[in-house]
Amino acid sequence: MLNYFAVAVIGALVGLGELVSRYKDAPERALLGSPSAWFYCVINAAASVTALYSLIVFDVTFGKTGTALNWARILAAGFGAMALFRTALFTVRIGTQDVGVGPVGFLQVILAAIDRAIDRRRASGRASEVDSLMQDLSFEKSMIALPTFCLALMQNLSDDDQKRLGQSMISLNQANLPDGVKLRILGIYLLNAVGPVALKSAITSLGGEIRKTPTP
Questions:
Q1: 139 Cα distance to chain centroid
Q2: Which residues contact 73 (CB under 8 A, 6 or more apart)?
Q3: Which of 20, 38, 148, 183 could be 139's S-S partner, Cβ–Cβ 3.0 to 4.6 Å?
Q4: Which domain, by its residues, includes 9?
Q5: What is the pTM assigned to this prediction?
């Protein structure tokens, strides 16, 4: 029974790690209080438990005995179940998107549903947070200075994330939108890239250099 509990914990942590990687700006806000996120962890745990049961039923020993056999099965089931769950028997192209057919198809449906549920729950809070952080800022002054400063603060932001942010900045600057709207979108982009704490620190540090010129 202890083996099943251990493998369930490993499976749940694997699912939790994947969700954390998907919501980089504030993973704790995405996960806490989100039934969809915890449901995904339960699915991962159940898949790992099922894998362990299968290893025992089919007497897969990996050439081990005793305690070594127990750990080999636990680790193989805990980490290997979701690897199997992510496999595709073949891939079909629908429009411009490649869709995997097999266990990965079910996983993609679950993840898409979780993404929508978490996005809906966080939308109003993120809008209020961006309004609060970006109020009184000048889009013209913030457009270059604020993203550059945020990126300088971050030590481990990947090259792909930096490139994606740069492309978003270019598109935003060229968009035919009021500066107030652009400013809020800029805040959302930075919130996604560096998180609320780093964004708030950057705004506080830059201070008056990116704020609107006070009316005499």
A1: 27
A2: 3, 7, 52, 55, 56, 60, 62
A3: 183
A4: 2-115
A5: 0.68
Q: Could you say which of 115, 143, 163 is where a domain stops?
A: 115
Q: Is the dihedral of CA 155, 156, 159, 165 positive or negative?
A: negative
What is the domain count for the chain? 2
- Quick one: 29 and 88 in the same domain? yes
The reply to whether 111 and 154 lie within a common domain is: no
Q: Which residues pair with 99 in a beta bridge?
A: 92
Condensed to tens digits (0 to 9), the pLDDT of residues 22-75 reads 776 667 766 776 777 788 888 889 889 988 998 899 898 888 888 899 999 999
- Whether 157 is in a domain gets the answer yes
Q: Which residue's structure tokens are 């504030």?
A: 26
Give me the pLDDT at residue 52, please. Answer: 92
Q: How far is it, in rounded angstroms, from Cα 63 to Cα 23?
A: 40
The four Cα atoms 150, 153, 159, 163 give a dihedral, to 10 degrees, of 10
Is 64 part of any domain? yes
